[in-house]
Amino acid sequence: xxxxxxxxxxxxxxxxxxxxxxxxxxxxxxxxxxxxxxxxxxxxxxxxxxxxxxxxxxxxxxxxxxxxxxxxxxxxxxxxxxxxxxxxxxxxxxxxxxxxxxxxxxxxxxxxxxxxxxxxxxxxxxxxxxxxxxxxxxxxxxxxxxxxxxxxxxxxxxxxxxxxxxxxxxxxxxxxxxxxxxxxxxxxxxxxxxxxxxxxxxxxxxxxxxxxxxxxxxxxxxxxxxxxxxxxxxxxxxxxxxxxxxxxxxxxxxxxxxxxxxxxxxxxxxxxxxxxxxxxxxxxxxxxxxxxxxxxxxxxxxxxxxxxx
Length: 309
What we know:
- The structure is a single chain.
- The chain has 309 residues and is of the alpha+beta class.
- The protein folds into three domains: 31-137, Orthogonal Bundle (Helix Hairpins); 156-204, SH3 type barrels (Roll); 210-290, Alpha-Beta Plaits.
- It has nine helices and eight strands.
- The protein has helices at 2-18, 22-31, 33-84, 90-115, 120-137, 139-154, 194-199, 225-238, 273-290, and strands at 162-165, 168-175, 179-183, 189-193, 202-204, 210-219, 249-255, 260-269.
- Helix 2 (22-31) crosses helix 3 (33-84) and helix 8 crosses helix 9 (273-290).
- The longest helix is centred in the N-terminal third of the chain and has 52 residues, at 33-84.
- The chain is elongated, with a radius of gyration of 41 Å.
- Residues 1-8 and 14-19 have low confidence and may be disordered.
């Protein structure tokens, strides 16, 4: 038994001593420099031979890359021209061509990497991992991109519409991938994230061809309502932008503390709304004054009792 243990220990020591160490390598470099130089030369020769063997694949990959980029640009240009001839909005055309461009470029790069010998499974894995990482880092931006898609599909509004959403209002001047731009009446540029525009309530004042113009007019209690009603109706009918085919209403709405409040309703084309609104306000006021119909203002009557207790 002792002899067996001794033999095993001797075999282990000989095995350990047979492994090359860093000291052995240094000793070989010092004692036999020509062998070391020969090994280095063989390494670079092998590297150069590998490069020479890979030249055909590299050249093919470069040719495929150039041709692929040219064909991708041509395909995107043809797609853009084809879509521009349809009834799609300019924003939808640009958005679609940008997405197609990205997809074609990714496809070309994938083919080039496959020619260079990189396994397609590894490429797909890298692209998938990068997509997940980018998606986690840009969650809000991706929700806005998805919102842009939904806006273009559902079309709750389009460029040129006057909308109210998320506490702001203005005319839609651009629908991009991430934001919808509104130009306010004071010419301020307002950018609403598409994700908010999709999920929030949107009032589209330009969604229909016609729009009702509502005004509130006050007359005195001493004034003749029927006379005021006729004067206001005549003013509305005389306006060339008012749609005479639709109802015109002049009715008493509220009996206020100091005045009788009239509701005045008429219709016009959506694009003429503000013109009709301001014109009628000015013309009705002038007509009431010309016909001696009093337009009251808020006042306070103070009575002083001089009698002493």
